[in-house]
Amino acid sequence: MKEKNLLSKYPQPKMQRVVSEKLRTVEHRIVASKRGQEFFDGNRNCGYGGFTYDGRWKPIASDIISNYNLENNSNVLQINSEKGFLLHDIRSLNPKINVFGTETSDYAISQTVDDVKDKIVLSNPTQLPFNDNYFDFVLGLGVVYTLNIGEAIKALREIIRVSKKNAFVTLASYENQDDYFLFKQWTLLGSTLLKKSEWIKILSYCNYEGDYFFTNANTLNLVRE
User: Contact 167/133 with Cβ under 8 angstroms?
Assistant: First the structure.
């Protein structure tokens, strides 16, 4: 179990992200919670503000393949795979890697890239419909911390169950009160926001042996209005 920035090659925002109570309100969070069209392709305050393929996941896909020694017939799972962009890029680099995804959003599945759409199933992160030790690598980006602590523990244990060992998750963290409220005002779906040391205790409690990265106000380049 170690901290690793698997997303280091993901494009960083050119401008700081401004945080304000006026921008992302509880009404926006209600809309976002459905993870439907408005979340992916609607108003920016409700989600992505337009979620389209632009190739930005290719470097991350390449790093995943090399870092986790994925090869022909390796099985890869992304939990909440959204529109399948990352899975598509993994497959484009090696078509013989078997990619799978789960989603809680019918809309996301309907909009998934054609070449991986039949590999996505509607499923909750706490109940993965796969056999034990099936995957050579399991990925959970922005998933675990959207759950309450009890569900987060269940999701981590499911990741452990279905993976042979290799996994990577992102976790929402803060170091001080200002960090906490910056992230809370920015996030639409984040439910469990903890200090790094607290997350480590949860990972250890679950016997999680994979890798992880902390998402926070600094990594998101958040500033107050």
Answer: no
